[in-house]
What does this fold into?
Amino acid sequence: MDPHTLHTPKADVTLYLVTDSTGLREEDFLTRVEKACRGGITLLQLREKERSGREYFRLALKVKEISSRYHIPLLIDDRVDIALAAGADGVHVGQSDLPVKEARRLLGPDKIVGATAKTVPQALEAEAAGADYLGVGAIFPTTTKVVTVLTAVETLNAICQAVGIPVAAIGGLNKGNLSILENSPISGVSVVSAIMKQADPENAARELKKAVCALPSRRHLS
Amino acid sequence: MDPHTLHTPKADVTLYLVTDSTGLREEDFLTRVEKACRGGITLLQLREKERSGREYFRLALKVKEISSRYHIPLLIDDRVDIALAAGADGVHVGQSDLPVKEARRLLGPDKIVGATAKTVPQALEAEAAGADYLGVGAIFPTTTKVVTVLTAVETLNAICQAVGIPVAAIGGLNKGNLSILENSPISGVSVVSAIMKQADPENAARELKKAVCALPSRRHLS
It folds into this structure.
């Protein structure tokens, strides 16, 4: 696809929350998800790699009930079957999950399929296979080294230039370090801790969204 | 369903092989699966809990290619999405996987949905939700005690009486201990090691099938 012919995207990745329920009581987890919705997240991904299929499904139904009330699309990490069973809005697949092409085929043209890409070739392949957006990173990996971060941002920018679908930067981003992306033509950021682990997830989401929207090079795709 | 009104079942569980690729080179694993097919298994389940979605899918395609040549239905453990993507013939779901009802809804009426049941209520629930057969056990759990085995066989028999769908006995069964099921109205047995871990999987399957077919109380449902 010509990257200059940008269509209205199916997924608004401006502030994309990926959940992490590890160590949280379910009630607390769901409350935090709801607060994040109130704070203005634009997309939500349920990511529960450790749970059994039945538990994942059960939790997906509960999260869907919340996200629907706020009209925020819910994606399921990896499991297309759970996305279908729970009536979610789509899936996010990584490089070790079902291929984008298969996810698209199972979900049909209207559901959202997002993909992780770490390189330009991976990004182009995912776009060609039908991905609606890309998650690209990690910008700040667990063991942060300045040189790693700069390389990550360079790759991120190259991917943004190469594809015509929205790109969300992922990996250790928060309000405090967002300025590293001020020259990146990303469409948004994807976070876990910067919202889920804050004392006030609603306010954290609101503040982070403001900061993302203020990024001067952001691609307004929604 | 009236257990006396037995319809021709969709799944023939006479000799039902569940795979285990742990510790095997892929080529060796696939060769063993093919030998089992030649030896007369009637149903095949790919069970790869440890693999990533992409690896599971990739292996499912390879196994499907083999099983199709022998006209043996291939089921995928747990992952309905991988079953759909790989064109498998159905799924097997345990008590911690997607519920039978959801699996059936996603797969439609023609695919095979099998379920694990450990009690009569679980068996009746699975049958009502649309399961085509039940796997019941473990007859010989890892820590074998005679009293456990007898209780397991009692439960197995009660389940066979309660449902109208085929029941396969599972758990540590082999040619040597099969006689414990001589009064059980099972339709077949499900094994892993008794075929996959034998020097000659083809012959092991052939011999085991003969022994299963000779069980005097077996329900001939196919």
